[in-house]
Amino acid sequence: MKFLVISVVLGLALAGPSLKTEEQRPVVSKELIDYINSQQSSWVASDKWLNGMTVAEAKKLTGTQIRERVWPVKDYSGVKVDIPTHFDSREKWPNCIHPILNQGQCGSCWAFGATEALSDRLCIGSNGSINVVLSPQWLVSCDWAGMGCSGGWPDLAWDYMKLSGVATLDCVPYEAKDGTCPSKCHDGSKIQKYYADSVDLLFGPENIQKAILEGGPVETTFTVYEDFMSYSGGIYKHTSGKELGGHAVKIVGWGRENSTNYWIIANSWGTSWGLEGFFKIAFGQCGIDYQAVAGKPYLK
Questions:
Q1: Active site residue 131
Q2: Which pTM was predicted?
Q3: pLDDT single digits (tens) 131-181
Q4: Taking a C-beta distance cutoff of 8 angstroms, is the pair 117, 250 a contact?
Q5: Which residue among 96, 109, 123, 171 is the active-site one?
Q6: Catalytic residue at 247?
Q7: Domain 44-294, second-level architecture
Q8: Integer Cα distance of 271 and 291 in angstroms
Q9: 37 in active site
């Protein structure tokens, strides 16, 4: 028994520095960037945004829990609508697609994707009469099914917004940290909450496209690899690098270029990342269209 304990302690001692070194290394090296750009021409890798970001820091930007599949999914096969080759919600509903936000060093992407999509859908569904930006911090602090900055489940976040509602960003500003669910707005005023009226799980490009055409942007999840952190333009396709974690984002549209179908997506890492906060990613890449969620806004 003494030998076993000593062996375990020794093993942990030896593994400790190695694990620490792995977490503190740059998430994308210059060599990896050069390799990515030499292997394909679909997208461009760059270190302009990274600023020496470590693996540990990059992992904090993820946080979405990805399941194998969530049932039942919404089936739009019976909805007869022509799906255009190109569609961008920013062009269709320019006053309702809200600005890029920044989650900071908090694994709250699941909350951002949910509140951002519902914010847009409230505006679209009300013909612009309800034009608010909902608070991701409210979900971080209040959603009992989430784990705050340690991650959460997008579908359960939508369930929460349907059952309990969510305050606005003006009422509950984002703090990029876990917090206590507030009983009043930060300025002392009464909280007004907004709700989802339904929650629809979406699987596959056609269902997601029809859902967007019907009601606006949707939240989706995908697996982030190290190379994604260096994205600066083009249509992303995973090329190299280790898995970092699950991430939630907002799909606003799609397009086609050189026979490749791609999604247009709003990220939550600020406007200095990617295409002023947006990115394009090929259909099917990293599970991007396998597990999306949205719902009709409550407008009564």
A1: no
A2: 0.93
A3: 999 999 999 999 999 999 999 999 999 999 999 999 999 999 999 999 999
A4: yes
A5: 109
A6: yes
A7: Alpha-Beta Complex (3.90)
A8: 25
A9: no
